[in-house]
Amino acid sequence: MIENSDVWSKTIPTTSMSSGNIEFLREKWSYWFDSLDVNHDGKITKADVDFTLKQFPVVEGLNKKVGKLADDQIEKWWNTYILRGKHEISKGEFLDDFQKEYAEKKLISLPQLNHYLNT
Predict the structure, then answer these.
(1) Which of 34, 72, 88, 93 could be bridged to 45 by S-S, CB 3.0 to 4.6 A?
(2) In whole angstroms, what is the distance from residue 8 CA to residue 4 CA?
(3) 18 backbone dihedrals φ, ψ, rounded to 5°
(4) What are 15-66's pLDDT values in tens digits?
(5) Nearest to residue 116, comparing CAs of 43, 14, 46, 48?
(6) For the whole model, what pTM was predicted?
(7) Nearest-angstrom CA–CA distance, 37 and 9
């Protein structure tokens, strides 16, 4: 791990997307989609969110109060970064949305890149 936090706040120019780069990213995003589609019906819906919200406090051994706080944050994350105001999203839409967002970024910070590629 690089110790200098200044390095992580710098922005780096993105290079042009070669077909190999975007294929790699789409494959990685595809695996992520598969893990988020917890009921494996080929789309991410409120049912996937609800299952996660129900299971997370149990799996993590959280008490009711802490579990509720975690649920609120998890639901916000799902709605902000995954569903993005939609009721459901297919794998194709998910991959296209992430590719479009990736292509629109002229500069991307290392923390953002790390967030998108390692979550």
Answers:
(1) 88
(2) 8
(3) -85, 160
(4) 455 556 888 999 999 999 999 999 999 999 999 999 999 999 889 999 989 9
(5) 14
(6) 0.67
(7) 32
